Every structure is written in C-alpha cells, then in structure tokens.
Amino acid sequence: MGMAIHQEDFRPEDHARFSRRLAESLEALRALLARPGFGVGPPTVGAELELCLVDRLGFPLPVNREVLARTSDPRVTLELDAFNLEVNLRPGPLAGRPFTALREEVESAVAAVRQAASTQGARVAVTGILPTLREADLGSGALTGEPRYRAMSAAIRQRRGAVPFQVAIRGEEEALALTWNDVTLEGANTSLQYHLRVAPGDFARMYNAAQLATAPVLAVSGNSPLFLGRKLWDETRVALFRQAVDDRGEPGEGGFQPHARVSFGHGWVREGAYELFAEAVALHPPMLPVTGEESPRERVAAGEVPGLDELRLHQSTVWSWNRAIYDPKDGGHLRIEFRALPAGPTTVDMVANGAFLLGLTLALAERVDALLPALPFVHAYGNFIRAARQGLDAELLWPADAAPSPQPVLATELVKRLLPEARRGLVGAGVDTREADTLLGVIERRVSLRRTGAVWQRQVLARLESQMPRRDALAAMLERYLQHAESGAPVHAWPVE
Questions:
Q1: 479, 130 contact by CB (below 8 A)
Q2: Model confidence over 358-379: pLDDT tens digits?
Q3: Sequential DSSP letters for 19-33
Q4: Are 95 and 420 in contact (CB under 8 A)?
Q5: Which of 102, 185, 44 is nearest to 353 (CA)?
Q6: Model pLDDT, residue 249
Q7: SS3 state of residue 390
Q8: What stretches of 319-466 show up as alpha helix (H) in DSSP?
Q9: Is the peptide bond before 404 cis (omega within 30 degrees of 0)?
Q10: How far apart are CA 426 and CA 410, in angstroms?
C-alpha cells in the first residue's frame, strides 16, 4: 500500500509544510513534463501481487512479519493486515514474451513465500477476498504493526471524528450491513496490480483507454464473491474498498461531502498526467505529511530529475482504480497502475487477465478520441460498477457507430467482440503472437464456459452447502480452490462437482 514512513504523529505545522511542498512538487512536475524527451522510452510492464496467509484449516493466520523474516527475497513486503503480504514483480519490456516472464516470476516469488510460510504453519492463498474471513479476523489487532499503517488508520479515523465506518453491500442473493471502527476491513482485499509505462505525450489517450477497458475485463475476471460469509458482488472488493478507507464523516452543511479517496475518477482526462496529480492534491487533504529535504524546484532548475517524494506519498493515499504514477527511476517516467483486477485464481488466469486488459487498452487508445464523445464518463463509471456487481451477467453500455450512443450489450458478447482488438493491441506493441493468442484464448474459453473464479466459488459453495453448514462449506470450498490453484490449470477447467 505504498511507501514506507517512520513517523506516526503529526502537528499542524507538518501538514502546512507538506501542503507547501505538494504545491512546489506540482510546479516541478509541470516543468518536468514540458522538458523535451522526458519519460520517452519503450513501454514496460510490471506488477504487484497481494497474498493471504492461512492456517491448515484455511482461516487467516496473522504471521506476515514472521514469514517476511524467514525469506530473503527483496520482492516480498508487508501489507495492511497481518495475514497479508505483497510481492513486487520486476518490470520488463512489453515487447516479446512479457507475460511468460511475469508468470515465471510470480511462481518463483510465491514459491519463496510458501516455503517461508511453512515454517510458521501457514499456507499461501491467492484470491480476491479470502472466503473464510470472520469478523474476529479483522479487528484492530489485525493491523500490521508498521508506522505507515498505524498513521494511516489514525488519520482516517481522525477525519471521520466519532463516526464509525458503515459498510453496506447488497448482492443479487444476500446483503451485508456492518459498522466498523478501523481500516482493517480493507486488508480483506487482495489484487494483482499491473503497471504500464506510458510516454507523457500519450498519457491522456492511454489513461482514457484504460478507463474504457476496465469494465469489460473486470466482468470476465471476477474472483471475490464472498465476504464474511455472505454472497455479494462478483468483485466485492470494489464495493468494500471505497467504504473501508472512507475518510469522510457526516455530510456538512447543505449535505456537501468531499470526494471519496477511492474512486473511478471524475471525468475523462483532457490534457495529460498532470491534471490527475493536481486533482489528487486539490480534492484530498494530506494523510501522511512526511516532508523530505529535497527541493523539487531546485532539482528541476538544475536540469535534474526530482524524487517528488511528497507527491508520490500523497498519491499513494488516493486510491483511484486506475492511478497515475510518477517514478524518478530510469531518468524519470510515468506509468498507469491498473488496480481493479483481483488476485487469483491461478497465475495463468492472472496473466491472461493482464494480457486482455493491457492489449485492449493499447488498441482502444488508437481511436479513443472518437470513442469518448459516444460514451459520457458517467456511463464508463456505471459500466465499472455493473461489471463488479454482476460479472458475466452484466449489461454494459458501449459506444455505437451511429446515434443513439451508447448502446447496451451483454458483457459476454462485448468481450468476444473486444478480444480481437486486444490481440491487435498486443501484437502491435511487439508481444509475441503465440503468447497473445494463448492468453486471450484463456479468456475466450472462460467466457464460452461462463466460469470465472467468482462463478466457480458460488457453484461449489452451493453444492457443499447442501451437505454442511455454510462456515464448514466455505472452508471446504477454499480447500478445493487451493488444490486446483496449485495444479496450475486455469479456473475455467476446474470441476465443480
């Protein structure tokens, strides 16, 4: 969940100094983006994978610090809750066989975590939301004991005043209403976040294309249908995340409430990355006001590349589903972080999801200027919510060739229509043709058989519930899930009997 810090208590002057530095950082970023050649280079792809640790019965085991201490792998880091870990995968060229490289790295990193976890009696589960989670697993004691997480929790609770978190999620079959006092609910969510390096001059088109592509890809990638024993959305993560870290208290005078820190965005990007960073600074007060010694203005004036540490830290506390990233490495560059996809079920499924998402983004970017007038942003947001809620059963709105636009189309039909575009985007970027065909073939089979991770979990749970109570059925279902995931077979090939 972002950069490490070593401070937990902040004074008003810390916030004031940090806000001044944010303003200076935006000024420096604008100058940097205007510098000829800045951020230009071949596209690269990387990823971050979040994991859960479970005991022999499949229930969460809060031993992330102990497991981390047992592995020397620098790619492995702590996450929000004590049963979470994150693996940061090394970026590589998009051209060639990038998804094969990512698959191999995921498997090697997870194997290292699995070996370290075994020394603590833990196993690794890769799934969007652990289906065996109980309320007792998510109390304040679940928070990983790191300054960043304690400070973030304190800042969010302080902004809310005495108002507890209210979580309300209504699925097709069941609903959840919950009052909570800490941010630990967010630790239930685990994802695979792809990073794509983008040239500054292409950023607006690529980002808007990513926003368009997210809904149809999410509809066919769902893997989070269960939370606290309830059957909710195909991607319950989407509903839970927004509510679990909402720093807004009761509405103020006139019913006004600031914007949520978790959002799909507020409109199409018109110019470039700068407006997204400026928007994050304008809409959201600092949460972790740690100010460094570097002067971004002086670094830029000297022709150097500033770290912009404060801006990057602030951006890490504003959780857009597709997020703009500035990185000073490699001479400085921009990335899009795709945050909507869940972890799991298997490595093959995850890299297939990524191939579909990145390929479709690349293809749509080529004609996005013609697509945006035919799909007002409010409909793109609606697509995102419907895809998260209903998965393969969602009806999405998509730009039409002639008025009236947009037109409704079933997610399954839209995905079939978009797969050739995704292939064109991948091959056009230099991705190996056979790799593109193999991975997009996984998506095609998933749609044809109508079996995502979310569908499989629901179907197996229904069968098991006819034989045992739900709590036992959830644990038994997860055990089957872990066994099938270890086989490496994509989820569409898993039996439900």
A1: no
A2: 999 999 999 999 999 999 999 9
A3: HHHHHHHHHHHHHHH
A4: no
A5: 102
A6: 72
A7: helix
A8: 347-365, 368-371, 377-390, 411-428, 433-449, 453-465
A9: yes
A10: 24
Quick one: which of 93, 96, 90, 89 has its CA closest to 41? 93
- Which residues have a Cβ under 8 Å from the Cβ of 178 and sit 6 or more positions away? 135, 166, 167, 168, 185, 228
Domains of the chain, each with CATH number or no CATH:
12-492 (3.30.590.20)
Polymer length of the chain: 497
- Cα–chain center distance at 495: 28
| Cα 390 to Cα 400: distance, rounded to the nearest angstrom | 22
Distance CA 418, CA 360 (A): 7
The letter for the amino acid at 460 is V
Task: Please give the Cα distance from 392 to 264 (Å, whole number).
Answer: 20
Closest-CA residue to 444 (of 416, 423, 420): 416
Q: Which two tokens stand for residue 385?
A: 């919510």
> DSSP letter at 96?
B
Give the confidence band of 7 by pLDDT, cuts at 50, 70, 90.
Answer: confident
Sequence-distant (6+) residues with CB within 8 A of 301 are none
pLDDT band of residue 32 (cuts 50, 70, 90) is very high
Sequence-distant (≥ 6) Cβ neighbours of residue 41 within 8 angstroms: 197, 199, 330, 331, 333
What's the average model confidence in pLDDT over 97-110?
A: 98
Residue closest to 316 by CA, chosen among 283, 287, 359: 287
Secondary structure (3-state) at 2: coil
What is the CA 417 to chain-centroid distance, rounded?
25
- Tokens describing residue 285: 């007060």
218-266: per-residue pLDDT in tens?
999 999 999 999 999 999 999 999 999 998 876 665 666 789 999 999 9
Give the list of residues 6+ apart from residue 431 with CB closer than 8 angstroms, or none.
94, 95, 96, 97, 98, 99, 355, 359
Closest alpha carbon to 50 in 25, 76, 71: 76
Residue 4 pLDDT > 80: no
Residue 270 burial by Cβ neighbours in a 10 Å radius (0-12, 13-18, 19+): exposed
Q: What 3-state class would DSSP assign to 256?
A: coil
Report the predicted TM-score, pTM, of the whole model to 2 decimal places.
0.97
pLDDT in tens, 58-87: 999 999 999 999 998 999 999 999 999 999
The reported pLDDT for the residue numbered 106 is: 97
Looking at residue 137, its amino acid is D
